[in-house]
Design a protein that fits this description.
2 domains; 13 strands; alpha/beta; five-stranded mixed sheet; 21% strand; homodimer; 9 helices; Nucleotidyltransferase, domain 5
């Protein structure tokens, strides 16, 4: 399936003036925040906007929030709606990008089979595209980040959970049920083996994800062993490890070894030369550096390069911009 | 890269009569045996031939053996060389199918960067194609076995070692260095974590591969615990497990659980709906049945179907026949 091509119905309400429209909207719908960017057809960002999504769960309410943000962005840029030619949105869950349907998100949103693309097209009268947020970040890194010019790579998002966006021959791998890259439940040495139910953190997430790292920390924490707070976050624990705290170093080692095992296993299967590490926890340099050292010991089998995200926390948003640009171009071509 | 298309130079010595040629040769080059089949353009096998490759290591000697076998097959079928329009060979190692080069095989052959396709084309004056033996088996299962009509599946070859042939959107995944699917070193719970050097069995091979299973058996064996021979092979151990031997059941459980973990991990990454189990050890029904039961416990996350090879030990050979047919067709189209 060709991810970057607009396949949906052509909206009937297209304004003839739109042929000269030359701006797009990229949206990053998160469990706690909504971020938007207005960009031109070269991907240059003209403005960004964000708001909390706390308490907002209904898909139509999210679309209204997006509409509100788009109005604000256009106003700031002294543009009108006729300046827009496409919109793309990343959603925090399993997404059928071909039909534009968000199949399932985590408990924060609780979406099931939401036709997000149709909702956006109906609301904006513009061609729209949607994909999973991790895949969106992979598009971003591919087009404007650490994987520019690389047709085969894996984007690893390490945040509360762990997910992968897999690019093969320049195309995203979605899988037959749109769950490719949902690696949070991968089984590696040291990870819990017991089957887990939906909604609970996966095997590697309990060692590499933000919540898992906190739990490991709290399980090992005692006042005698460390002056660092028992309530430290994953990145604070990594900071403490870099500052020499022995317990924090242990926890960092466990996380980074587990991450290295994940990268190693994916490398064996896909023989993919590049891994780009992102996400709120993955962006901490300590994790990537320690995982790289672990991988170094296994170079006899695989030699993947592990680099830090080039776009940081903007990867999804920039991916959405580029998907919107592709969607606009494909639409013009079709129309 | 399009695996089934003939990309090589068009041989200069083509006989004009060849335009009416309508038979192909499939070859399966193993570490201990060479097997050949003569087939028509529908894939119907007209005859097979095999010989030992013990002591034969030189690539040119292997090509001479193939030539000898082809002569024999043609003679049996009352055909001449002009009846042939292509040949394809599976090699037991990492193979660049685009350039037709066998990059590396195990110690049995010891090949490094052997231009096998060119050697075959020069010797036979026919378009030739080569690939890794596990990929060849995947082609076989896809075209004539358990994965017919399925565009996304993984063929798992469990023999002395463990390897995978990965088909995505109807095309083999080769990886950037032609090692995709070399999963013998995958790290799963229960498998040894220590890095291993080239030439030694990988982590999961030590628990699922034929030699590994024998070692586990011998490590746990004692006369008091089982009447089964200490020198039993993997399939004999599986037979004993089915017959109720407690120690053999333990070993089968360890192997099948490890295999289930491998399938589970690949499923998470690729979201691939079908796994086809083959290879000399994998063809034993006890392994697949026990692995299927293990996977059943984890259906909340992935629901891959695990089926037994439809072609058994002929998978590679039948894959080679189909690759030869594709090569002949592509060559005619180009010529």
């Amino acid at each position: 399936m060709e991810q970057q091509v607009y396949n949906g119905p052509i909206p009937l309400q297209l304004d003839p003036q739109k042929s000269s429209a030359s701006y797009v909207i990229g949206a990053d719908i998160g469990g706690t925040n909504l971020r938007l960017a207005l960009a031109d057809m070269s991907g240059r960002i003209m403005g960004t906007w964000s708001t909390s999504t706390a308490g907002v769960r209904e898909p139509q309410s999210v679309v209204e929030l997006i509409r509100h943000g788009v109005d604000s962005l256009l106003c700031q840029a002294s543009l009108t709606h006729t300046a827009l030619c496409a919109i793309a949105a990343g959603a925090p869950g399993v997404t059928n990008s071909e039909l534009g349907i968000v199949i399932a998100t985590s408990y924060l949103m609780g979406w099931r089979n939401v036709p997000l693309r149709d909702l956006l097209e109906a609301d904006f009268g513009l061609p729209a595209a949607v994909d999973n947020d991790v895949n969106m970040a992979a598009i971003g890194e591919h087009r404007a980040g650490a994987a520019q010019g690389v047709s085969d790579f894996v984007f690893l998002a390490v945040g509360t959970g762990v997910g992968a966006g897999i690019m093969i021959n320049g195309k995203l791998l979605h899988g037959t049920a749109w769950t490719a890259g949902e690696i949070g439940y991968m089984l590696v040495p040291g990870a819990p083996e017991a089957p887990v139910e939906r909604g609970t953190p996966g095997a590697i997430e309990s060692l590499v994800g933000g919540e898992g790292i906190k739990k490991v920390w709290q399980g090992r924490w005692s006042e005698e062993r460390t002056p660092v707070s028992k309530e430290a976050t994953a990145t604070e624990i990594f900071d403490a490890a870099l500052a020499g705290d022995a317990l924090a170093k242990q926890v960092l080692q466990l996380s980074s070894r587990t991450l290295a095992y994940v990268i190693y296993n994916i490398s064996l299967i896909l023989n993919c030369p590049l891994f780009v590490l992102g996400g709120s926890v993955g962006l901490h340099p300590a994790l990537g550096n320690a995982a790289r050292a672990e991988l170094e010991q296994r170079r006899a089998r695989v030699q993947p390069e592990l680099v830090c995200s080039g776009l940081g926390s903007d990867a999804q948003l920039i991916g959405a911009i580029h998907l919107a640009i592709d969607t606009a171009k494909a639409h013009r071509f079709v129309a």
